[in-house]
Structure formats: structure tokens, C-alpha cells
Design goal:
By secondary structure, the protein is an alpha+beta fold. The protein folds into 3 domains: 1-52 and 297-430, no CATH class; 59-280, no CATH class; 484-661, no CATH class. It has 26 helices and 22 strands. A hairpin with a 2-residue loop joins strand 18 and strand 19. The protein is elongated and about 100 Å long.
């Protein structure tokens, strides 16, 4: 047996063979390159989301302090924590450094230009923890002097039109800040994002508030990051912090009722989350004020889909290459007769397959490069690391692997060629077992297409349902304006009054945060006269809140501008979800009852229906509503055009808040924001589904053509024995109907299971049933029918006399 050795001559022969049949060559290279291109784009996205915070040095030693307050109903983990925990960490002996990070969304003004800026107030330890080095200037100076700021390069360009801005000044909330450093822009795949940094002692943070927060265990206000010493243990530091929380004033000042309710359970729990894993941290995903999060299961799924698409494209190439090998039986036989051994034949076929795979890889990379801007816009992520040297090397290696694997089956067919039979044009060249293998591969293609399409349709329908679900009020006539100040200020009150007088405006109400967005809120221990108590979150609103949102009471009355004062605390409204924890048998039973809110008393005047405050990814929370002017999110209701009202609002904002960039959007826009990750996932699944369907259609078309060619003699004999065109058509159609049914039987259960796993993240499901899976099956049946129809008609119209002359 000759040794297997591929040489340059084998590649030259392969290139000549490809040039000899340009049509066949174009089909196999283009088909495989499309699979490569889509696979590489999706894998680039997977790499992007899997590399969050990978640019931070020693990221495995950096941890975020996570916090959970168990006294509230349905407690959840927060990325925010009480600031005294930072001092606990510094005294523990376990950390090199620690920093608090307080996000501050402000408007910076340079001359007439105003720009929204995400500042972060940080300790000097930020520089050491995150390894941020200034492009120019002194970052330490910016973090230690109260009137200094460090801007990112991108923000410097926006504000000043150039990068070199040291010593320049900008106005933020009436304060003057001097640029002390220019920083590189944080990577887009980072959970720590900012446009600029200021010190903890910054003039932007009121000194009294800052002092109170660094002493209070009752408020969660900022993120705390720690960097462990090389030999320190996160578990040890976590226990030290947990002990400190257990001995804090928060626990000592608890009421006897709360202590009895908690029993041995910790009032507050502390965990350390590794920075390298925070993007996929399931604890804090979706919690208010948390960073961007992703689902690791979805990422694994996308990686699998990317490789699956490449596998399906490779299967098509294998089928086409096998057909081509059968047509080259005489050529292979001549080579064997002339002395070519197994090694020489194998080397030639491996070289040809490698050549096709590498050409397809190169073309796939070109496609990915050309489609990269479209893909970035589709997924709304800056996936810009596709053409780095490591990615190119991995792509080349993937091409080599595909080439070697794809060559195995055609090579096996070639090695089985017997020269006497091939030279005499006898023998099918493909055994029944080999033919069954190709059918199995086609079934795999259909199973993948059906499964992927079923999952895509299910998730797409659920996402559409969530985005269009009734939040508990009519959002169409509502416009939301997120002011930089609350209604207790002259500017905010003036803007509200002016907007209320605009044509078509039926009212302008205020709340503490937009509906549809996760919120922290303040929790009160609500206690009834009989001793029943529950910790419930408060939602401060203006007296006309329910009127503007068009919400009617379940019992009693809701707030009314004519009866309730703006800052009165003696009357409250509770939500329907608050009835159970307060042990009210019905909405009517709660009306008129007096309750204690901490040290104060209030009367329940009404019960409001539950509204979806945070979308369908979060369960409905019990809420108490109280009136207040300490609210800065306004909602205007109009009987006219909302777009025209938005223009009016923007005009008034320029008058009352000339130095601020303010968010103005329709009410449902905040709900849509909560489903951005779902929409992105559906888009990626859609791309994968379309590719899988197209590849499956091409695969079954090729198989149909081969089947008709292989069974041509049988068809002729049947026709000679009286079979009509309809009988022949049914013969061919029956075979492919069986293949499609087998693919459906394999793919649909997988689609059902994968869909159930994803839908478990929603608290309310669309009335789907099996409709998406049935629709996926219908799509595949139509595709299969279209792909096989031509060959079925060809077989039914086969003329025996003509066919016998070519057999």
C-alpha cells in the first residue's frame, strides 16, 4: 500500500478539474462558502458576547459585590450594594484595592453644544482595578480632585471635535469641570461602561448625600468592585462581608415583627460575582440598574446553529461530490489500472476536497466582510473582531477540517471502484447502504430545518405577543418625558404646566420611573391593625396619575387632583397583588383600612388593578401608590397626534431645560426596550432558519435528481408494464414524503423542548399551542414539494424509447 502524501501536483490537478466544469464548481464552492460566511458571522457574534470584560487585566481576580435584601417579597439579587461594604472589603486583608462606581447620567454642555454623557463617580482604586491608562493627562488627578473629569476619546470628539482637550472645561448641572485626562473608549462588550470618570468627591454628588450613603446600610446606591490579592479567596471575603452585614445597623434596627418573620434567614445576603462572568450572571440578569446581560444557553445555542449550518452546507457538498465521483468511475479505474494505489487515489481526492473547502473559506470570509455592516445593524452589536489574525487562523483551520471530513465519503466510493466493472460501464458504483447514508444525511438536513424553523417561529411569536401585550392601560396616546429634575423644582413644575396647556393634551402625570423599566423603589413594612405585615415597594405618583393612564379602580377610588394633595401621605392606593400579602379577602375588604407605613399611618382609599410595571419577563409585584412631587418622569396624554406632541414637548424642553438632553419617547417604547435581547435572538435565529431551509431544499433537490437517475431503468420497466405518469409521480413523491416525515419526526420534538426552555423566562405566554411547530412543518413541506416537483414531473414524463437508448 502506498503512503498517503498530498503534493502540489494534486492541487494543480484539482484546480484543472474545477476549471473544466465551471457550473459544477460554482455550485459547490458557492454553496459551501455561504455556509462558511454565515457560520463565521454567527461565531464572531458568539465570540463577541463570550468575551465581555476580557480586555480587563487579571479579570479573574476582580469581583462585583452582589446584594439581596430578603425582607421584601420575591427578593432578587442586585448589582448595587450598600456602600459601607467597600470599607469592609478594604479592612478584610483580602483585597488589593476596591472602588465604588456610581453611574450618573448627565448632560454636558460646551458652548451651545449639549450632549448626554454617562459619567461614573469612582474611587482612585478604579485605575488599579480595571487597568485603565490615560491616552493623555492624569487619571489619578481626575479621580481625586472634585472639579476634574476624565473623558473617553469618543466623548471628547463629540464635545470638542478633537481628542486633545486637556485643560478644556465643560458645564454639568451648573458645575464647571476641567478635563484632566483623555481615556480610551471602553470596549463595547464590557459590563463597565462610561463616557467619562469623576472622583467620588466630585462636586456633582452632593456632599451630604454622599456622606449619608457611605454610612448607611439601608440604601443600595452604587456598584462595588474589589480586586483580590493573588492568593486571596473570594469565599473568605464573601463570608467576611456577610458577617458584617449580619452585624450592621440594618439588622439591629429591625422591628420585632420583621425579626420574627425572618427567623434564622439572613436579612441581607452577599455574593461575589466574578467580573469575567458578570455578562452571563443569572442572579442579577434583569434587575434594576444592572449592566447588560446575556443568556449563556442562548449563546451555546447560537454556536450550535452556526456549526449546524456549516454541517448542512458540507452535507450538500458531500452529496454533490459523491455524485461527481460516481461519474468519474472510469477515470478512477484507469488510474488504478496504471498503477495508482490506495494512497495515491486518496491523496488526489483529499487534495480536491481541501482545495474546494479552502476556496469556499476564502469566499466565505469575503462574504462575511461585505455583510459585516448589515450583520452589525441586524444584531445591534459592534461585532468588529472577525478579521483579527486569530480569527483568520481559526477560519483557515475550520476550512481544513471541513475539507478533510467532506472528502471521506466520496473517497470511500472512489476506493470501491472496480476497474473491470467501471471500464465495462457495469455496476451502480453506490451500494444500497451508501445510498441509505445519503438519504440519512438529507433527513438530518430536514430535521435541522424543521427544528430551527419551529424554534424561531415560537420565539418570534412570543416576543411579538410580549411587545404587544396589554400592560394594563392604553399606551397609544401616551408620551413619556424623563426630566433631569423632579416636580418640586421650578423648572420641572413650569414645564409640566406648559405642556398641560398644549393643544390636545388631556393631562400630564408624574411618576418616579417610566413604566416598563425595572425599578428599585423604596420598600415599606406595611402593617395592619391586626398585626399582619408585609414589605411592599412604594411607587410615588402625582394625584392625576391614574386618570392620565386611564386606569379605573377595582374598589374604592384612585387618586384625584381635586381631592388629594400632591405631597399628602395620609391616603394610599394599593395594587391587586398587594391584597394577598396583607391578607385582604377581596378588594372591597381593603377599603378604609388603616395601615402603618413604617412610623407613619395611612388609609387605603382604593385598590388599583395590576399593571405590567416591568414587562413579561418579571412577575407582577405588589405595589403601594402614594402622592408626591418628588417625581421626574412625566407622562402626557393627548387626544391628537403623539408625534406632534413630541415636537411640542421638545420645544418646551429647550425653553425650560436648555442645558440638558432629555429622553422623550412613546410609552410603549420603554416596554420594547425590555425585549431588545429577545428581538436580537429572533433575528439571529431567523438568519439560521432561512439558511437551513435553503440548504435543505438544495439537498433534497440533488437527492431527487440522483434518485430519478438511479431508478431510471426501474421507471422505464414500470412504464413498459403499463404504469402511467400519475403512478410514476406517486412512486417518486412517496419516497420523499417518507424522508420529510422522518425529518419532521426527528426535528419537531427537539424544537418543542428548546422552545419550552426559552419560554420559561416569561411569566405570561402567548396562546401558541402547537401552531408554530405546525407552521414550521408546513413551510418545510412546501419547500420539499417545490424542490422535488421538477424531478417528479421529469420521471413521470420519461419516454421509454429515449431512455433505453441512453441506459
Amino acid at each position: 500500500m502506498q503512503a498517503l502524501m498530498i503534493n502540489l501536483r494534486d492541487f494543480r490537478i484539482g484546480l484543472r478539474l474545477l476549471a473544466k466544469e465551471p457550473g459544477y464548481s460554482a455550485v459547490i464552492i458557492l454553496g459551501l462558502s455561504i455556509g462558511f460566511g454565515v457560520c463565521l458571522l454567527m461565531l464572531a457574534y458568539v465570540r463577541y458576547v463570550s468575551s465581555y470584560d476580557a480586555s480587563v487585566p487579571d479579570a479573574d481576580r476582580i469581583f462585583l459585590v452582589k446584594y439581596k435584601y430578603n425582607l421584601i417579597p420575591k427578593p432578587q439579587w442586585f448589582e448595587l450594594a450598600p456602600l459601607p461594604l467597600m470599607e469592609v472589603a478594604l479592612r478584610s486583608g483580602q483585597v488589593e484595592s476596591a472602588t465604588a462606581l456610581n453611574a450618573m447620567k448627565v448632560t454636558a454642555k460646551v458652548g451651545p453644544l449639549a450632549e448626554a454623557v454617562e459619567l461614573a463617580a469612582a474611587h482612585p482604586g478604579f485605575e488599579q482595578i480595571f487597568g485603565v491608562a490615560a491616552l493623555e493627562g492624569d487619571l489619578h488627578k481626575a479621580l481625586t480632585q472634585p472639579d476634574m473629569v476624565a473623558l473617553t476619546r469618543g466623548m471628547a470628539l463629540k464635545l470638542f471635535g478633537r481628542e486633545h482637550v486637556l485643560g478644556r472645561t465643560l458645564q454639568v448641572t451648573g458645575k464647571t469641570l476641567t478635563v484632566a485626562a483623555v481615556l480610551p473608549d471602553p470596549p463595547s462588550n464590557s459590563t463597565v461602561s462610561y463616557n467619562g470618570l469623576v472622583g467620588i468627591e466630585t462636586t456633582l454628588w452632593p456632599a451630604e448625600e454622599r456622606k449619608m450613603l457611605f454610612q448607611s446600610w439601608s440604601f443600595i446606591y452604587a456598584k462595588i468592585y474589589v480586586k483580590l490579592k493573588p492568593n486571596a479567596s473570594a469565599a473568605v471575603l464573601g463570608r467576611i462581608m456577610q458577617d458584617a452585614a449580619a452585624k450592621s445597623p440594618l439588622v439591629h434596627e429591625m422591628s420585632a415583627e420583621d425579626q420574627a418573620r425572618m427567623g434564622r434567614q439572613a436579612v441581607a445576603e452577599i455574593r461575589l460575582g466574578a467580573l469575567s462572568g458578570m455578562y452571563f450572571d443569572a442572579d442579577t440578569a434583569g434587575s434594576p440598574d444592572s449592566s447588560e446581560h446575556g443568556d449563556i444557553r442562548a449563546v451555546y445555542g447560537l454556536a450550535g446553529i452556526a456549526l449546524l449550518i456549516l454541517l448542512l452546507a458540507t452535507i450538500n457538498y458531500v452529496n454533490l461530490a459523491t455524485v461527481r465521483t460516481l461519474q468519474r468511475r472510469r477515470e478512477v479505474a484507469v488510474r488504478k489500472v496504471l498503477g495508482a494505489g490506495v494512497g495515491r487515489v486518496a491523496a488526489q481526492f483529499l487534495a480536491e476536497s481541501l482545495l474546494v473547502a479552502l476556496l469556499a473559506t476564502a469566499l466565505g470570509l469575503l462574504m462575511a466582510y461585505l455583510l459585516q455592516p448589515v450583520f452589525i445593524a441586524l444584531v445591534d452589536r459592534k461585532v468588529d473582531q472577525l478579521f483579527t489574525l486569530p480569527m483568520l487562523m481559526w477560519s483557515l483551520a475550520l476550512g481544513v477540517v471541513v475539507g478533510l471530513v467532506a472528502a471521506l465519503y466520496p473517497l470511500w466510493v472512489a476506493l470501491r471502484v472496480r476497474p473491470p466493472e467501471a471500464m465495462a460501464s457495469r455496476g451502480a458504483g453506490e451500494t444500497v447502504g451508501a445510498s441509505s447514508m445519503r438519504r440519512l444525511l438529507t433527513v438530518l438536513q430536514f430535521a435541522a430545518a424543521i427544528g430551527l424553523t419551529g424554534v424561531t417561529l415560537t420565539i418570534a411569536y412570543q416576543t411579538r405577543f410580549a411587545m404587544q401585550s396589554d400592560p394594563g392601560f392604553n399606551a397609544d396616546p401616551l408620551l413619556v418625558v424623563n426630566l433631569p429634575a423632579n416636580l418640586s423644582t421650578r423648572e420641572a413644575a413650569g414645564f409640566r404646566a406648559a405642556l398641560s396647556q398644549a393643544p390636545g393634551v388631556d393631562g400630564v402625570a408624574g411618576a418616579q420611573s417610566p413604566l416598563g423599566v425595572g425599578f428599585t423603589g423604596r420598600f415599606y413594612t406595611v402593617t395592619r391593625d391586626d398585626g399582619t405585615s408585609a414589605s411592599i415597594v412604594a411607587r410615588p405618583v402625582t394625584p392625576n396619575f391614574f386618570d392620565v393612564y386611564g386606569i379605573a379602580p377595582l374598589a374604592g377610588r384612585l387618586f384625584d387632583s381635586r381631592r388629594d394633595q400632591a405631597d399628602a401621605q395620609d391616603n394610599i392606593v394599593i395594587s391587586a397583588a398587594a391584597l394577598r400579602p396583607l391578607h385582604f379577602a377581596s378588594p372591597e375588604a381593603a377599603i378604609g383600612k388603616s395601615v402603618r407605613l413604617g412610623a407613619n399611618s395611612a388609609t387605603i382609599v382604593g385598590v388599583a388593578p395590576d399593571i405590567k410595571l416591568e414587562g413579561l419577563h418579571k412577575a407582577t409585584r405588589a405595589v403601594i401608590y402614594s402622592t408626591s412631587t418628588e417625581v421626574g418622569v412625566l407622562t402626557a396624554r393627548t387626544s391628537g397626534d403623539v408625534a406632534a406632541l413630541a415636537e411640542t414637548a421638545n420645544g418646551l424642553l429647550r425653553q425650560y431645560f436648555p442645558n440638558d438632553v432629555i429622553d422623550v419617547r412613546r410609552a410603549y417604547g420603554h416596554y420594547a426596550q425590555g425585549y431588545a435581547e429577545d428581538v436580537r435572538f429572533v433575528k439571529l435565529l431567523g438568519v439560521g432558519s432561512v439558511m437551513a431551509i435553503a440548504i435543505a431544499a438544495f439537498g433534497i433537490y440533488v437527492l431527487a435528481a440522483c434518485t430519478v437517475q438511479r431508478r431510471e431503468r426501474e421507471i422505464v420497466i414500470r412504464k413498459l408494464h403499463g404504469a402511467n405518469a400519475r403512478a410514476i409521480g406517486l412512486l417518486i413523491a412517496r419516497e420523499f414524503a417518507l424522508l420529510t416525515a422522518t425529518g419532521a419526526a426527528a426535528g419537531l420534538p427537539v424544537a418543542w423542548y428548546a422552545s419550552r426552555v426559552y419560554l420559561a423566562t416569561f411569566v405570561e405566554l402567548a396562546p401558541l399551542g402547537m401552531l408554530p411547530l405546525a407552521a414550521a412543518l408546513l413551510v418545510i413541506l412546501v419547500v420539499a414539494l417545490g424542490a422535488t416537483l421538477t424531478q417528479t414531473v421529469k420521471a413521470s414524463r420519461l419516454v421509454p424509447a429515449v431512455a433505453l437508448r441512453t441506459l
